[in-house]
Amino acid sequence: MTTEKDIKIEQYKRQLIYYYNILMSVILAIFGLIFTFIIPDKIMAWYLFGGLFLLDYTYMIVRKTYSVNFMVHSYIIIATLYNFYIMLAFWDNSIASFVWLIPIPLAAYVFFQRKYIFIYSLFVLLNIIAGYLISKTFSFNFPKHRPEDVRITDTILMVSNVAVISLLVYFKDKIKRVEIYHEIEAKNKNTGIPSVPVAEKAPFANELFEKIESVMREKHLYKDVNFNISKLSAEIEINSSYISKSIRAKGYPNFNNYLNRHRIECVKRLLNENDIEKVTLMYIYTEAGFSNQSTFNRVFKQIENITPSEYISSLQLH
User: CATH number of the domain at 258-317, please?
Assistant: First the structure.
C-alpha cells in the first residue's frame, strides 16, 4: 500500500532526477564547447555532445514510464561506463577525470538501501582499477594537453562536482525531513492522542531538535525580527506542533524562549566581537533580531539575570 510518505519521497526523488538532468546537461554542454573552441579535440567534443543528446533524449522517453529505481540504477551503470573513455583519455594528463565517479555512492545513499552504497562503491573502485590497468597495459593515441588547459578543465570539473554533490545532499535532506515527520506522526498514532509528556518521549524528538538547531545556526533565522514558529515550520517542512514538542523536550518552556536564547547568544557574541564605544547598542540588538530596546532589556535580564548595561560593564572590566 502506497502511503503519503512514499508519495512525497517519490516526488522529491523525481525532482532530484529532473534537476540533476538539467545540471548535467549544462555541464556536458560547457565541456563540449571547451573542447570545440578552447581546447580543440574533435573526438572528445563529439563524445561529450553525444552524451548530452543521449542523456536528454533518454530522459524524455523514460521519465514518465519507468520507476525512479530503474532510472537511477540504469543511469549509474551507463554513466560510469560512459565516463570510462573520458577517464582513459585524461589519465596521463589529469587523474581528476575519475572525480566524476565520486558522487555515485552518494547517489546510492539518496535513492537506495544501504547495501547499494557498498555495491556501487565497489563498482566505482573496480572501474578506477580497470582504468589504471588498461592505461598501463595498452598504448593509446590520446591528445596531450597543455598544463594550462588541464587547469581549466580540472577547475570546471571540481566546481561541477561540488554542484552535483550539493544537489544530492540538498534533496537527501528534504527526504530525511519527510521521513522524520512521518516517523513522529506514526509514533503519535500508535500512542493514541498523546499528552505533551508522552509525545516528548518520542525517540525522534532529539533528531528533530538537532535539525532545528542546525538550521537556526547555519541560516541565522533568529535575526529576522518577525521570525516565528510558523516560519520555522515552513523552512524545515515539519508541523509546528512537533517543533514545539521537540523544543519543550529539550527543557525550553516554549518556542519564544528558545528563539530569544539564540538572540541573546548572538548579542553576547556581538558585544564580545565589537567595541561598544564604536558601535551602538541599538545596532547590536537589532542585528540579533530584537525590534526594540525595551523588549531586548527585558529578555536579556530574564535570561542572563543581569541587565545589558551590567553585562557590558563586566566586559569592560576584563
Answer: 1.10.10
Start and end residues for every CATH 1.10.10 domain found in the chain: 258-317
Cβ contact 307:297 at 8 Å: yes
Q: Which residue has the higher pLDDT, 219 or 318?
A: 219
User: At which residue does the C-alpha cell 512521518 appear?
Assistant: 182
- Report d(CA 305, CA 178) in Å as an integer: 40
207: Cβ contacts below 8 Å, ≥ 6 apart: 180
Global pTM? 0.62
pLDDT at 187 over 70: no
For 206, residues 6+ apart whose C-beta sits below 8 A from its C-beta are 246, 249
Cα separation, 105 vs 108, in Å, equals 5
Spatial distance between the Cα atoms of 261 and 304, rounded to a whole number of angstroms: 10
pLDDT at 189 over 90: no
Candidates 151, 20, 154; CA nearest to 86 is 154
Q: Does residue 203 contact residue 243 with C-beta atoms inside 8 Å?
A: no
| Phi, psi for residue 145 in degrees, rounded to 5 | -110, 150
| Continuous H helices in the chain | 4-33, 42-62, 68-89, 103-111, 114-137, 147-190, 196-200, 205-219, 229-236, 240-249, 255-273, 281-287, 293-304, 308-317
Helix 308-317 and helix 293-304, axial crossing angle in degrees, nearest 10: 70
Quickly state the pLDDT bin for 273 (edges 50, 70, 90): confident
The pLDDT tens digits for 4-22 are 778 888 889 999 999 999 9
